[in-house]
Amino acid sequence: MKGAADRAIRPDEIIVDLFAGGGGASEGIRQALGRHPDLAVNHDEDAIACHTANHPTTEHACASVWNVEPRVACAGRPVGLLWASPDCRHFSRAAGGRPKWKSVRALPGVVLTWATRVRPRVIVVENVREFLGWGPLLEDGRPCPDRIGRSFNVWVGRLRGLGYRVQWRELCAADLGAPTIRTRLIVVARCDDAPIVWPQPTHHRVPGLFGQPWRTAAEIIDWSLPCPSIFDRRRPLADKTLARVAEGVRRYVLDAAEPFVVSVTHAGGFRGQSLRAPLATVTCANRGEKALVVPTLVQTGYGERAGQAPRVPGLDKPLGTLVAGGGKHALVSAFLAGCGGRAGQSPPKSVAAPMNTITAKADQILVAAFVAQHNGGVIGRGAGEPVSTISTAGSQQNLVECALSDTDRAGAERVAAFMIRYNGLNIGQDLREPLGSVTSKPRFALVTVHGIPLPIADIGMRMLAVDELRRAQGFPDGYDLTAGGRLSKTAQIRLIGNSVVPAVAAAVVRANLASHRAAELAA
Predict the structure, then answer these.
(1) Which has more confidence, 290 or 190?
(2) Checking DSSP bridges between strand 14-18 and strand 39-42, what pairing results, if any?
(3) What b-and-e string marks burial along 425-452, b requiring 16 or more CB atoms within 10 Å of the CB?
(4) CA end-to-end span of the chain, whole Å?
(5) Cα(165)–Cα(170) distance, integer angstroms
(6) Other CB atoms closer than 10 Å to residue 167's CB: what's the count?
(7) 266: how many CB neighbours lie within 10 A of its CB?
(8) I need a labelling partner for 199 at 20 to 30 A (CA). Which of 214, 245, 461, 470 fits?
(9) Would you tell me how many other CB atoms lie within 10 Å of the CB of residue 302?
């Protein structure tokens, strides 16, 4: 067994990123080894523009991987690492039962070409877990059910025939420090004498004595962005979407076990904390507002069957996988706010003192939220969970917010009627009774804050922003997805949805090729 120094990437070896996209794998390689890839190949001009902006020392080839001759591209230089992330559309379950393209399903074959002609010392292939089922197609373009996995086994056999040892595992990005539960199959092949090493999880769904808890959706959300009401839209939301929102509000606002305390400022980023921790220092900046948030991620749009119970995971988990077809998540939040004044009008007070009394003068703005997702038949997730898979369209992920007011009775009636219509809740209190006196006449959807029940007066929903999706996928701040302002929002989201989670690439490369010195430089 070779030591770490023998296994590490050598200065004379080059690094190649095939199917490089916007640079998720390349960013992970940079983090692990302290250097950018030497060659990146992708056929998409937007992807190459983005990759060039962030990896300026890399040589770029905007061409089909089939049209790049490995020996010419490498110019006699030995290849220490070949990373390949072939198009997964025609393996993924997200493609449904539609006919497949043989040309797309054959893309992993280009790895064999590189292995034959330039013999990379280490090869890493990333794809969806369904890649294991790669097999021949029927005449109608659908996978043959009797030959599932045959093409994958032949492909592995050919790699082994070329002298490579081959192993594969499924890795969840949340286990490796990213705030998304995107799970991908990783195949590692190497032809030297060093063993294949798998990274150990650094984060855990239920952390024990060692390890950290999963990162959450709450930390990637910009809570300062407004959410327009679901009731006053020029184009009404689909009935199924409204039903999912109602179920998310019930699970993650009305029945939430533990809300979050966040600062509602315009400084950007998440500045929140669990209610189990002391309240952070309240400053005069941005009026020092605080907000109570119970966040949820709603996931919708994968076509539930009639009568099928919706699935609504909590926000104490990472966001689900971010897929290329659309970021099927929506953030739903219930605002619990007193009316009659503006937040921050009260003078600042010591954090040692209790929170102000909740009154009609709105000394604090309280926000309960969750992230809705419009695909996959999932209602959503709580903000304390990781983000689920982001798709290339991105339009399916929304932040939903519910605003509470003890004076907006018309709004409270509207919300109560909405909740009763979509999930039959027996909620609230008679409008004629004093606030907090719950009677047998259900009129309000009430949320109790510090022992005081407040009615939800409005529900808002907005799409997750590009920067929120970027952070969810694990790209660092400063990573330029615009290619210097060239790329549209749609193009940026598509690149995010198609990207490798950098934390996963970094962990795999670091485990197999990084020296201690390289890890220090990358950090």
Answers:
(1) 190
(2) parallel
(3) bebbbeeeeebeebeeebbbbbbebeeb
(4) 27
(5) 17
(6) 14
(7) 9
(8) 470
(9) 16
CB count, 10 Å around CB of 307? 5
Which residue has tokens 């049209």? 67
pLDDT tens readout for residues 141-150 = 777 888 888 9
Distance CA 365, CA 400 (A): 16
What's the half-sphere exposure (Cβ side, CA atoms, 13 Å) at 368? 31
- Out of 274-288, 302-316, 417-431, 446-460, the most confident range is 446-460
Q: Would you give the distance in Å from CA 38 to the centre of its chain? A: 28
Report residue 323: phi and psi, to 5°: -100, 165
Q: What is the pLDDT of residues 59-73, one digit of tens each?
A: 999 999 999 999 999
* pLDDT range class, residue 392, cuts 50, 70, 90: low
Q: Which token pair is 351?
A: 């954090």
Average pLDDT, the chain: 75
Query: DSSP letters of 231-265?
Result: SS-SSPPPHHHHHHHHHHHIIIIIS-S--EEE---
In order, the DSSP letters of 336-372 are: EE--SS-TT-SPP--TTSPPPP--TT-SSEEEEEEEE
Is pTM beyond 0.85? Reply is no
Question: For residue 436, what are the CA distances in angstroms to 340, 415, 419, 445, 455?
Answer: 19, 17, 19, 12, 10
Helix (H, G, I), strand (E, B), or coil: what is residue 391?
A: coil
Task: Please provide the DSSP assignment of 41-83 as one string.
Answer: EES-HHHHHHHHHH-TTSEEEES-GGG--HHHHHTT--EEEEE
Expressed in percent and rounded to 5, the helix, strand and coil fractions of the chain are 30, 20, 50
Largest CA distance in the chain: 84
CA 220, distance to chain mean position in Å, is 9
